[in-house]
Design brief:
The complex is a heterodimer of chains A (123) and B (334).
Chain A (H helix, E strand, L loop, with lengths): L3 E4 L3 H13 L4 E4 L2 H10 L5 E4 L8 H9 L8 E6 L4 H9 L4 E4 L4 H11 L4
Parallel strand pairs in A: 1-2, 1-3, 3-4, 4-5
Chain B lengths: L8 E5 L4 H14 L1 E5 L12 H11 L5 E5 L9 H11 L5 E4 L11 H6 L2 E3 L4 H11 L7 H18 L4 E4 L3 E3 L8 E8 L3 E9 L1 H10 L11 H23 L16 E3 L4 E3 L6 E9 L8 E13 L8 H4 L8 E3 L1
Parallel strand pairs in B: 1-2, 1-3, 3-4, 4-5
Antiparallel strand pairs in B: 6-12, 7-12, 8-9, 9-13, 10-11, 12-13
Helix pairs in contact in B: 1-5, 6-8, 7-8
Classes of the chains: A alpha/beta (123), B alpha/beta (334).
Chain lengths: 123, 334
């Protein structure tokens, strides 16, 4: 059972983000792409927040976000994109899919940990 | 253009005539060329075969812009006419310029030598030499703002992946060489309305594995494997690519423009990669140094290859990126 699902095809980013969150007393699960993320989200109903990359093989993060709302019919989980993308069209697509927020990489944990804790109800 | 953003090019010089060296020095200064002079037999090293030294210089410099040779024999009796075919066989992409004594034509030279040469000049023809350099080395204009911006973005990416690292960089330079440094490299397309091509990052696997073993990266493994070193380079590539897109690619490239592609050729035996274009590539050399000495220095070569389309006159920084409302790493709520 985890509070946060980190979805990124880069092991470096998965390690970096999950280690930081774990060090801040948050339980974390990781997924290697959007497909894996959907799978893990379906199996773990305790996940309150998904932090996902956009550009990933097999299934990108925005498609995953859209499928979370449509295929899984999960309207409750918060989704934040952590990506190198900052194109307004991408953000608009995320917004339409119910994405809650957007972080442009690199990940600076100290800047966002407060907001993340609030989103999972741990603040 | 400030000294920081000056774009240079490294050239190999085998020349024993003082007047010719003086002319070459002026040309190098004018075009920001850095001359790597090889032994001509009259220095303190003593009588040494120039072809051996050229081989050594070329082996340790996989990022040259051109070669300047002389028809006249050096003190060892070695002439550029002998050297040029050897160099051309080893690195056919490098333009070779030959100084000749009595003519600037190559018509009287054997076909094998003509094929190896990009052009000939005489010592009193500085204009012709400048023209050759313009045509072969400085044929592609790269905005200095792009070069300095890419350095800044790349440094930020490396610092994010390796907290506490000190990133040093050489001046950006133009490269004709198509030799691959190390055995680990990444390629990612760069697509905008003003350029189309690739970004390539090159390094050695052992350097990255040493970094991971030291615990200085975000990967916590004492016995990392190639997937881990791939992961580090992958993330560096992704971060730099994303930053370049945000900062410089303001407009989408039309679908019409995306249709053109050319095969990328890789020869593993020769460690050679060709993008189908002979235009000079914009190259950056970074050294990642750990002040705490947890891992040895890492050398990284970054190349921008705009082989499919290049319109630097349309180059502009994204106003949005320059005047960002939300900084990198901050959470922007919708």
């Amino acid at each position: 059972m985890a509070q946060i699902l980190v979805v990124d095809d880069s092991a470096t980013v998965r390690n970096e983000v999950s280690s930081f969150l774990a060090a801040n007393d948050l339980s974390v699960e990781v997924a290697i792409d959007g497909k894996d993320g959907l799978d893990k989200l379906q199996r773990d109903s305790q996940i309150k927040l998904v932090i996902s990359d956009v550009n990933m093989p097999n299934m990108d993060g925005l498609t995953m976000a859209e499928k979370v709302r449509s295929d899984l019919n999960n309207q409750g989980v918060n989704i934040i994109m952590l990506t190198t993308e900052s194109d307004p069209r991408m953000k608009a697509r995320g917004k339409a899919a119910g994405v809650k927020g957007w972080i442009v990489k690199p990940f600076k944990g100290d800047n966002v940990v407060g907001s993340i804790k609030k989103l999972v109800g741990a603040a | 253009m400030t000294k920081e953003t000056q774009i240079v090019s490294k050239v190999l010089v085998h020349e024993c005539n003082d007047d010719a060296l003086s002319v070459l020095k002026d040309v190098c200064t004018k075009h920001n060329l850095i001359g790597l002079k090889v032994c001509t037999g009259n220095n303190t090293i003593g009588l040494r075969d120039a072809s051996n030294e050229i081989s050594e210089v070329m082996a340790s410099n996989v990022d040259l812009g051109a070669v300047f040779l002389s028809e006249a024999k050096d003190l060892n009796g070695v002439s550029g006419l002998e050297l040029c075919t050897k160099i051309h066989r080893a690195r056919p992409e490098l333009p070779i310029f030959m100084r000749r004594e009595h003519t600037d034509s190559m018509d009287d030279l054997p076909p094998s030598i003509q094929e190896a040469l990009a052009g000939c000049y005489q010592v009193e023809e500085a204009d012709k030499l400048n023209e050759l350099v313009d045509n072969y080395i400085c044929s592609m204009y790269y905005p200095a703002e792009l070069a300095s911006g890419v350095i800044d973005l790349s440094k930020e990416a490396f610092e994010s992946i390796i907290p506490g690292v000190e990133v040093r960089n050489d001046l950006p330079y133009l490269v004709k060489d198509q030799i691959i440094y190390g055995e680990l490299f990444s390629l990612i397309p760069l697509e905008s309305d003003w350029c189309r091509g690739y970004m390539m990052l090159q390094t050695t696997e052992n350097e990255v594995l040493d970094l991971i073993r030291s615990g200085a990266s975000h990967i916590e493994k004492t016995q990392p494997d190639s997937r881990d070193s791939n992961g580090i380079l992958n993330e560096a590539t992704n971060l730099i690519w994303g930053s370049i897109r945000s900062r410089y690619f303001t407009n989408e490239v039309s679908s019409e423009g995306l249709r053109t592609q050319v095969p990328i050729m890789v020869n593993h035996q020769r460690k050679h990669i060709s993008f189908g274009s002979t235009e000079p590539q914009l190259c950056f050399k970074f050294t990642l140094h750990d002040p705490q000495m947890r891992f040895p220095d890492i050398t990284l070569y970054q190349r921008l290859i705009f082989n499919l389309s290049w319109s630097p006159e349309k180059f502009a920084e994204s106003e949005k990126a320059v005047d960002e409302f939300v900084d990198n790493g901050e959470l922007e709520f919708f």
